[in-house]
Amino acid sequence: MPEPIRLKDHEKDARLVRARAVVGATVVLLLSLVLVARLYYLQVIQYEHHSTLAENNRIHVQPIPPNRGLIFDRNGVILADNRPSFSLTVTRERAGDWRKVLDTIVSVLELGEEERTLFEKRVRQGRRPFEPVPVLFELSEEQIARIAVNQFLLPGVEVAAQLVRHYPQNEHFAHSVGYVGRINERELKKLDPVDYSGTHHIGKTGVELFYEDLLHGQVGYEEVETNARGRVLRVLKHTDPVPGKDLTLSLDLNLQKAAEAALGDRRGAVVAIDPTSGGVLAMISQPSFNPNLFVTGISIKDYAALRDSIDRPLYNRVLRGIYPPGSTIKPVVALAGLDSGVVERSTRVFDPGFYQLPNVKHKYRNWNRGGDGWVNMELAIARSNDTYFYSLAHRMGIDRLHRYLSHFGIGQRVSLDMFEEAAGLMPSREWKRVSRRQAWYPGETLITGIGQGYMLATPLQLAQATALLANKGKWHRPRLLMKADGLSPEQLMASGLLAARPAPPDIQLKDPHNWDLINSDMQQVMHGARGTAHKVGATARYRIAGKSGTAQVVAIRQGEKYDRNKLQERHRDHALFIAFAPAENPQIAVAVMVENGESGSGVAAPVAKQVMDAWLLDEKGRLKARFAAPPQELAHDNER
């Protein structure tokens, strides 16, 4: 029997619809409440936060890098300036796929893979968001045109005008003024990110590095309004940057060129100092290089050529080159002997051509194998007699030698503002015991007395020792800076803008007259009939106090004689010469080192004289009036 057909239950359907409507309404209400709560949270509770974010998307603070201070020589000739240049910049946040953009740049400008690698490295070093990073400097007009035509393919890429460091004197001051270069990752970690925002270059060597804080200046800012693409619509606020201080150095361009011409194509160093102030007048390390190569990034090929050159043009021989001072140190040793009472000026030593320690067979040879017979101090300095100074060194002992020579700056950094300077070495018993774990031997004292053995000095230290002989022990640290925006180094140190580095105490002798005696003996080197450099001194228009020297590069066995023909050119002796002039009123002290020049009096002395001539003589070859000795000093010299 079939089941009865049920009629539709309208009441039940109604209840189901109502239930579903209630659930739906509840869900909608809850969602609406969540939305309202979220809107309240965002628009009320976090209003300031999100309004700031929105404002930051519209308003950007752009750094304005300060103009780097200029550098001049003592006569106002510019040595380092800022030259306008067009650079290609990339803003990574606006470039999208910035690697693809770099590929497009390389393609448009027809560059190589080396440039592509360099571009990526520079972009990765970008420091702040939305900060343009220069990837290519000194764009040509053709390159600027190509970028403009293809601008639609290069989002985030712009051509920007900026000032780039330039050295108009090229290689003449590469080792003194130094150069700037791009900030690397190591430097980036040490720099103040705010102070250097917008700055892409920093001093790398020389004055550019030592006085970086003065040259850099203070960064400025612009608040700008931008659109969604990052294009600047208007400037809201502008704060000018403070340019770096202009520096005036004691260097003289004309003297620098004269010293380079005197040295010629030979490898070596020349330092000229004003003994009255410590100002460095000329500073030459030869060969040199063009610092402009490093400013915007040197190519791998060009850097390899400089780095791998056998002549080492990047090596600063004035500050980093350490050489045995040879006989140039003998006037200081003689002065030490007089002041310590070990010898008198009339003390004589017989020279048969060698010196022997008591009960020792080894012969310490004089450069003149035939000997000079009886020699006093005056003749020993004039002739550069080794035997006399072997005897003097033995009588003094290494302890007194070390003490006196250290007073003259041997074995220590002497400069005020040349951070690259090597300390050299003034050996002592303690030094040998610590470094070699050996006792000091008497024979080592002898060769120290003639500037050989362990003793090492830089050309700058020899120039400083010469200046101390010239000004009778008055200490002035050698300095390159004359003034910074009118402030002297002393004023800068007093104001805290320059780290204080006071000079050592002046050298006080028991008998100050000994300064004049050594001065007179050094004049005999140049003007005495038996002086080693009398041929050079004979043509001088003024009195010169000097001392020649040679420094061995390779050792010569006992009993053998130096034979230049058996040695490679780079194994021959170095030639050295120190001098100051005018002898009665010293205005310039010079140290010359010619690598493998062999003869101090024959090779280095003429260089020193040409440098002094360029400084002391006028166009007519006469001593400049301002360098003449005061009348009272001339009268005193005549009485003597």
What does this entry look like structurally?
By secondary structure, the protein is an alpha+beta fold. It has two domains: 187 residues, Alpha-Beta Complex (Penicillin-binding protein 2a (Domain 2)), CATH 3.90.1310.10; 341 residues, 3-Layer(aba) Sandwich (Beta-lactamase), CATH 3.40.710. It is 38% helix and 17% strand. The chain is built from 23 helices and 20 strands. The strands form six sheets. Strands 2, 3, 4, 5, 10 and 17 form a six-stranded mixed β-sheet that branches. The protein has a five-stranded antiparallel β-sheet with strand order 12-11-20-19-18. Strand 11 and strand 12 form a beta hairpin. Helix 13 packs across helix 15. The longest helix is centred in the first third of the chain and has 36 residues. The protein is elongated and about 155 Å long.
Defining traits:
640 residues, alpha+beta, Penicillin-binding protein 2a (Domain 2), Beta-lactamase, 2 domains, six-stranded mixed beta sheet, five-stranded antiparallel beta sheet, 23 helices, 38% helix, 17% strand, disordered C terminus
Architecture of the largest domain, according to CATH? 3-Layer(aba) Sandwich
CATH class descriptor name of the largest domain: Alpha Beta
What integer value in Å does the Rg equal? 37 Å
Largest sheet: 6 strands, mixed
Structural class: alpha+beta
CATH superfamily of the largest domain: DD-peptidase/beta-lactamase superfamily
Range of helix content: 25-40%
**Average predicted local confidence, pLDDT:** 88
The structural domain count equals 2
Q: Note the overall shape.
A: elongated
Low-confidence stretches: 634-640
CATH topology label of the largest domain:
Beta-lactamase
How much strand? 15-25%
Number of helices: 23
Ends apart, CA distance between termini: 161 Å
Query: Can you count the beta strands?
Result: 20
